[in-house]
From TrEMBL, chain A:
Its main location: membrane. It comes from the Bacteria. It comes from Halomonas cerina. Keywords: Membrane, NAD, Transmembrane, Transmembrane helix. One of its GO terms (biological process) is aerobic respiration. The chain crosses the membrane at residues 6-27, 72-91, 103-124, 136-156, 176-195, 229-247, 253-271, 283-304. Pfam families: NADHdh. GO terms for cellular component: plasma membrane. One of its GO terms (molecular function) is NADH dehydrogenase activity. It is a multi-pass membrane protein. Belongs to the complex I subunit 1 family. It is found in: Cell membrane; Membrane. This is NADH-quinone oxidoreductase subunit H.
TrEMBL record, chain B:
Residues 171-205 are annotated as: Disordered. NDH-1 shuttles electrons from NADH, via FMN and iron-sulfur (Fe-S) centers, to quinones in the respiratory chain. Couples the redox reaction to proton translocation (for every two electrons transferred, four hydrogen ions are translocated across the cytoplasmic membrane), and thus conserves the redox energy in a proton gradient. Composed of 13 different subunits. Subunits NuoA, H, J, K, L, M, N constitute the membrane sector of the complex. It catalyses: a quinone + NADH + 5 H(+)(in) = a quinol + NAD(+) + 4 H(+)(out). It is an enzyme of class 7 (translocase). Pfam families: Oxidored_q3 (PF00499). It is a multi-pass membrane protein. The chain crosses the membrane at residues 6-23, 35-56, 62-85, 97-118, 142-162. This is NADH-quinone oxidoreductase subunit J. One of its GO terms (molecular function) is NADH dehydrogenase (ubiquinone) activity. Belongs to the complex I subunit 6 family.
UniProtKB/TrEMBL annotation, chain C:
GO terms for cellular component: plasma membrane. It is an enzyme of class 7 (translocase). Its main location: membrane. Keywords: Cell membrane, Membrane, NAD, Quinone, Translocase, Transmembrane, Transmembrane helix, Transport, Ubiquinone. The gene is nuoK. It comes from Halomonas stenophila. This is NADH-quinone oxidoreductase subunit K. GO terms for biological process: ATP synthesis coupled electron transport. The chain crosses the membrane at residues 27-49, 61-85. The lineage of its organism: Bacteria, Pseudomonadati, Pseudomonadota, Gammaproteobacteria, Oceanospirillales. The keyword S-adenosyl-L-methionine does not apply. HAMAP family: NDH1_NuoK. Its EC number is 7.1.1.-. The keyword Transferase does not apply. Pfam families: Oxidored_q2. It is a multi-pass membrane protein.
Length: 308, 205, 101
């Protein structure tokens, strides 16, 4: 009686509850395998096949977008990333753009990235992309200040705004040890500028993709590529500003730069998924109330250290 | 001062770009687009400053104006009835006077540029623009620099006072109405008020 | 690139800016006109610094001061727009014509 009326039905329902979703997930996977490009490729081929998929995917069009800006925004973001990468010194003489104010130029790349990401979200003329763009601007205006103060702290011991001078000033001691607050704060800026992990407010899933919600095809490919490229450029600057750039024993300078950039990238790739996404309001409060004062402390630390 | 040909070509292109984008600011339908056109004009001028070997000022133009125009675009979307710029927009007054004043001021300033004789004293070859600016800011012109800082602080306080929700006449938002759908029209989204007492005649929406 | 051509460009920017500042009804567009004027002023200052002032540091200082003026103009402008919008639900200059009296 009890067995028939309570235990078996309950078991059955629970089994269905557990097995059903599992089977659905397997089915989804099977469908995805038979339709999409996820069949076969290992971790080395997967990015390539996904890129190829985006390239041949049909390009979505929204209702009355600002066509020029919408097409240009991913390309501009990529151009900014390329500009940032050009500032990284690979050795004492091997610098693509060696100007006296390269540190400030990186700061302006960060500022212009905010504009470009807003443009991407705004120009599609749809609701969710605009919300993503707005969130990004709120985030961008917050992290730019943190980044500026941290970078001023790096420029202080170098007594120069040129990145090559910043590296030569780290002969005795790398900035990561000399200014212990600098690199952690700067890594947060790096996650924010490419909206990854906890700071993925612009392209988050609660906005169905946010600024890239309605972007597909080659445009999407360029957008995602530019995001990754910006992170690579950022890791180059972080290496230069905090990890001593080309400095290091035995190996030639460019190899050291490459190793350090890879290490920063690996750290960022781990940091991204390791932390949960923060809601926009709390994220902005965190930036202004906790991180910005910490950046002040970092700058005061650098100033006192430079005076002593 | 003689510049290489590439610099001259770059200057001409940047100058045309700066004027074109500056003109487009007032000829585009969308205010967001207008503020980004203005940003492009600033960037072109900043690049010209770099050509003139003002290394810090040119780069400072990029990041100052990047943030500034971003904020401007935000305010546009906040206040404008037509932020996306899907409808043609021409909101001008005293148009002829403005065109006349613009042309007249261009002619006057251009005449000064063409007719006046300025001494020809180019940059010394060994000048380091960035350290010279820094030494001036924190050296002889320290007072000016500090005054600018104080004025900026006063601006911040004034801005907070002007735009803060609480004023000395009570809550600033109190009694304010949402804008009408057409200029001077009824406030949008407000329920119709029943002025007759005991009307008992309620609309159901 | 000579001093004259730089000044001509500055004159063009100032002219467009004056047109915009006088013709636009919207406060924010009006401020864009003012910014364009200051853009021309900064370019002229740097031009004089580089070609006629023998790199006197005060030339660069003037440009920094103009940048600060720009920031102040924008912050105060937006605060006034917010205040007027709160009171009058308007963002065009005609709406505050009664300030004249």
């Amino acid at each position: 009686m009890i067995l028939d009326q309570l235990v078996w039905p309950l078991t059955w329902v629970l089994a269905a509850l557990v097995l059903g979703p599992y089977l659905l997930a397997v089915l989804d996977g099977l469908v995805a395998r038979s339709l999409g490009p996820t069949r076969g490729p290992g971790i080395w081929l997967a990015p390539l096949s996904r890129g190829a998929w985006w390239l041949i995917q049909h390009t979505n069009v929204t209702e009355a977008p600002d066509g020029r800006a919408w097409r240009l925004a991913p390309a501009l973001y990529l151009a900014l990333a390329a500009g940032g990468l050009a500032l990284v010194p690979w050795s004492r003489t091997w610098v693509a753009t060696d100007i006296a104010t390269s540190l400030v130029l990186w700061g302006s790349i960060e500022a212009l990235a905010t504009v470009v990401i807003f443009l991407q979200g705004w120009s599609a003329n749809t609701h969710l992309t605009l919300v993503g763009a707005y969130r990004y601007v709120a985030l961008g205006l917050s992290y730019i200040l943190i980044s500026m103060f941290v970078l001023i702290g790096v420029a202080l011991p170098a007594e120069s705004l040129a990145l090559t001078q910043v590296i030569t000033s780290q002969q005795e001691l790398w900035n990561v040890l000399r200014q212990p607050l600098g690199l952690p704060l700067f890594l947060i800026v790096g996650l924010a500028i490419t909206f990854r992990g906890p700071f993925n407010l612009a392209d988050s899933t609660d906005l169905a993709g946010g600024t890239s919600a309605d972007v597909s095809g080659a445009q999407r490919l360029v957008w995602e590529f530019a995001r990754s490229a910006m992170l690579v450029a950022f890791s180059g600057i972080a290496t230069t500003a905090f990890l001593g750039g080309w400095l290091g024993p035995w190996l030639p300078g460019p190899l050291w730069v490459a190793f350090k950039m890879l290490a920063v990238l690996a750290l960022l790739a781990w940091l991204g998924p390791a932390f949960a996404r923060i809601t926009p309001e709390r994220c902005v409060s965190l930036m202004w109330v906790v991180l910005l004062p910490l950046a002040f402390v970092d700058l005061i630390w650098a100033g006192v250290e430079a005076l002593l | 001062m003689n510049f290489p040909l590439a610099v001259d070509i770059a200057f001409i292109l940047l100058a045309l770009f700066a004027v074109y984008t500056g003109w487009r600011v007032f000829r585009t339908d969308s205010m967001v687009r207008a503020s980004f056109f203005l940003l492009l004009s600033f960037i072109a001028v900043g690049a010209i400053m770099l050509l003139l070997s003002a290394m810090y000022l040119g780069v400072a133009m990029f990041f100052m104006m990047g943030v500034e125009m971003m904020v401007m675009a935000l305010f546009m979307v906040m206040f404008m009835m037509n932020p996306a710029g899907l409808n043609p927009m021409m909101m001008v007054h005293q148009h002829r006077l403005a065109i006349g004043a613009g042309i007249a001021s261009f002619v006057i300033v251009a005449a000064m540029a063409l007719l006046a004789r300025f001494p020809h004293r180019p940059l010394p070859a060994d000048l380091q623009a960035v350290p010279s600016l820094g030494n001036e800011l924190l050296g002889e012109s320290m007072l000016i620099f500090e005054s600018v800082g104080v004025v900026l602080l006063a601006t911040m306080i004034g801005v907070v006072v002007l735009s803060s929700q609480r004023g000395r006449y009570g809550n600033a938002g109190e009694g304010s109405m949402p804008p009408g759908l057409e200029p001077g029209g009824e406030p949008a989204g407000m329920p119709a008020k029943d002025d007759e007492e005991g009307g008992g005649h309620h609309h159901c929406h | 690139m000579t001093l004259t051509t730089v000044l001509l460009l500055a004159a063009a920017l100032i002219g467009i800016g004056i047109y915009g500042a006088l013709s636009q009804q919207s406060f924010v567009m009006l401020m864009m006109g003012l910014e364009l004027i200051l853009n021309g002023v900064m370019l002229a200052a740097v031009g004089f610094w580089a070609m006629s002032g023998a790199g006197a540091p005060e030339g660069q200082l003037l440009t920094i001061v103009v940048m600060a003026v720009m920031a102040i103009e924008m912050a105060m402008g937006f605060a006034l727009v917010v205040a007027v919008y709160r009171g009058k639900q308007a963002d065009v200059t005609e709406a505050i014509a009664d300030l004249r009296h």
